[in-house]
Amino acid sequence: MTPLLVCAAVLVLSGALAAVSGRHARLVGALGAVAGALAGIPPAFLALAGRGPEPLTLAWGLPIGAFSVGLDPLSAFFLVPILALTAAAAVYGTGYLGLRGRGSWFFYNMLTASMVLVTAARDGVLFLFAWEAMSLASYFLVTFEDDQESARQAGLTYLIASHLGTAFLLIMFALLDMGWNPPRTHAAAVFLLALAGFGAKAGFIPLHVWLPDAHPAAPSHVSAVMSGVMIKTGIYGLLRVLTLLGAPPAWWGWLLIAVGSTSGVLGVLLALAQHDLKRLLAYHSVENIGIIALGIGTGLVGTASNSPTVALLGFGGALLHVLNHALFKGLLFLAAGSVLHAAGTRDMERLGGLMKRMPWTGAAFLTGAAAICGLPPLNGFVSEFLIFLGGLTAVTQGRAVCGGVVVGSLALIGGLALACFTKAFGVVFLGGPRSERPANAEEAGPAMLLSMAVLAGACLLIGLSGPFVLRWSLGAVAQASGIPARSLESVLQDALAPLMAVSACGAGLLAAIVALAALRAWLLSGREVRQALTWDCGYAAPTSRMQYTASSFAQPIVSLFAPWLRTRERADGPDGYFPSGARFSTETPDLCREGIYEPAFHWLLKGALRMRVLQHGRVQAYVLYIALTLLVLLGWRLK
Amino acid sequence: MNLLADVLVILVVLTNLRVLGLSRLSPCIRTVAFQGALLGLLPVLAHLDDMTTRLALQAAASTVIKAAIFPWLLGRALRGTGSQREEEPFVGLTASLAAGVLFLAAAQWIGSRLPHVGQGAPGHMVPTALFTMFVGLFMIVSRRLALTQVLGYLIMENGITTFGLAFAEKQPLLVELGILLDVFMAVFVMGITLFHLNREFDHLDAARMTELRD
Fold it and tell me: Which pTM does this prediction carry?
């Protein structure tokens, strides 16, 4: 356990040191993050290979709980992306923040340390401590730009949501501690509480409301970490609790499939309707969490129906998607951060034409976009393919409805995601600039490009080495599914054979792309290459305002799904024979926020305001309340 | 416990009743100071035979703080203010005295019903402690001026000390010193706050500070 504790200690100490090192804070913070990753990743790989360290219990000054930590394959599987992404994002952050936000490095490294502890904790109390530390550290990062009203509001929403989630977890741990009587109801209660508590962190619809506010508010490298790995701790918690609950009944799987398809489809639809680039990416996190839930649900159905193949494909796909989403969503947020850094806005209606000014950032965003849409030869395809395969296998094994729902919603999600990223990439990077600053944007600095290149490379590598990665994560799959690794080994070939084909096709596709690029370069060599306007449309003097806007591109699909989106349009159309001006704007509010939470909190506030008659400012009466309460308690005990 | 200690306990009860019947502030402060001195002496008299240095020092510290420093701090705050008496308390003085008698009865009743408390201590220690706490709380609730409320707080704290004396003969030194330090800091802060409140608002009427709520 020593290397992992060293990793946590390095993170904590470097965070504390960064807090006092003034203008060198970014150097100290980022070095600490990288050193922590270097210390923590090797033991995690060893643990995945089945040679993890012995669990360790240290002295602990509290009457409850224990400082008990361990590293098994499931922890290690989550630990690797956490450490890798936080290190990459920290390097990016040195360039992105520059000398701003010196105080943020402390919270950044604390966030990483608490995530490490969340995955390593083997005791409920310690876990909750780490969980709270994680929520608080990320809260301070979300409210980093606290001079902006929106950031403060987002922070408040996040704080309330994460504490409500923790409240469910407190009850859940109390139930776990109480023993097993009656076993089935008890396990079901624990499962539902875990789903609510961890789901609030992971962002299952309708518990996702904090996510689209908090991710855009945080600095971009923090958004990458929060979206890429922090919300995955919710998935980790859910899987960890599942390992404690024994054999799952089939309806747990059904419930997760329902939650997953709702989150996936609604998440991508809401993403499609956004104009804010980072908000769009945040809704895609909801979508991808939905895909992960679909995978876990499929796996649970497989476990419940004694089908190791379906379990392997479902859990394997879900776990691989955890890793893959960390990589490509991290990459996308970093690229979006470069856009924000260079162009000064996240509003897609003001961006455009950045491919010419920022080719490397554009390439990185394109890689991430292709990966998140599940296109080969990138990593998103591998994990979504496994879940597809799980659904199809379930159909052939007689679970037609379950498999059908999984395959159908995955297909719908994939198609909509493709439309959404065509919009995002096309509007931001292609065409002409829609305002002043994108026209003069500068390419991101070397630190930022390096991190993006590493993540893009990892996306491609995993996309090409799917079979290897699945075999590598077998220990974690065995632990999550509760099926012994040996029986998974026996069906592993069912998953490996198609993955081999996928890798071969991916490599072929990549070779074809390289060959075509070479052919193009060869054909163009020695010829004159001219650059012209992209959006010309046959006009003599086109302006960038003639381009498709982000809203107009998405409009056909948005109107198709209008009943679920409730997009508000404000049109102020051209009038008369010689119209002077016209305006049109759309806004897609979050349906859950407007339909569930705002009324609920409105009523809560109204009830709370009624209580204010008790608070009239007279100190004497306040003391009287206390005295009466104490007397009543005393009388109650004495009777 | 000897006769002298019994007399002291009865004196504590009487000081409580006297505070309830007073309207002028400076005699109030003096009475509370006297009560503090009584409580400082009580453990010394109770342990005349087995006196230790620790006990003596503790008694000395408690007496100095409660009988000398607090009155001085509060007297200073009082001199800075115009009001010398509690003009119209929420509960009148006669009614307060009547309430005090009721508290005494209630304290006797509760004290007789409390299980496992103060065994070995004389029978009237626990009721006296409860009575003192009730009077302190009643002072805080029924008086208008912030200064009288501080006095109520002090009386309540005296009740807690009495309770401690009855409850465990030898409580840990650290706990006792901690409580003493707490009270000292509290009164210190309150004295300063009173001074500033008076300068800011020209009165110390806590009932008129309702606009300070949010």
Answer: 0.80
Residues of chain B in contact with residue A634, where contact means CB-CB under 8 angstroms, are 110
A619 to chain B, any CB pair closer than 8 A? The answer is yes
3-class state of residue B153 by DSSP: helix
Residue B141 at interface with chain A, using a CB cutoff of 8 Å = yes
Chain A neighbors of B140, CB-CB under 8 A: 619-620, 623
Residue type, position B143, single letter? R
CB contact under 8 A, B209 and A624: no
Residue A514 binned pLDDT confidence (cut-offs 50, 70, 90): very high
Of B110, B149, B211, the CB nearest to A619: B149
A505 CA to centre of own chain: 29
Let me know: does A258 contact A204? Beta carbons within 8 Å: no
Contact between residue A451 and residue A88 where contact means Cβ atoms under 8 Å apart: yes
pLDDT at B8: 86
A451, A455, A439, A429: which is closest to A95 by C-alpha? A451
Burial of A66 by CB count in 10 Å (0-12 exposed, 13-18 middle, 19+ buried)?
middle
Chain A, nearest residue to B130 by Cα: A631
Predicted pLDDT of residue B103: 92
ipTM over 0.85: no
Distance from the first to the final alpha carbon of chain A = 54
For chain B of 214 residues, list the mean pLDDT of each consecutive stretch of 10.
79 92 88 90 75 78 86 82 75 90 89 65 77 90 84 86 69 66 74 71 70 66
Task: Copy the structure tokens of residue A176.
Answer: 């776990």
Residue A224 and residue A235: Cα distance in Å, rounded?
Answer: 17
Is A618–B210 a contact, with Cβ atoms under 8 angstroms apart? Answer: yes
Contact call for A619 and B113, based on CB within 8 A: no
Structure tokens at A263: 């989150």
AA identity, residue B87: E
Rounded Cα distance between A514 and A478, Å, is: 38
Q: Number of Cβ pairs closer than 8 Å across A and B?
A: 35
Per-residue pLDDT, averaged over A391-411, amounts to: 91
In chain A, the residue whose alpha carbon lies closest to the alpha carbon of B90 is A620
pLDDT of residue B100: 92
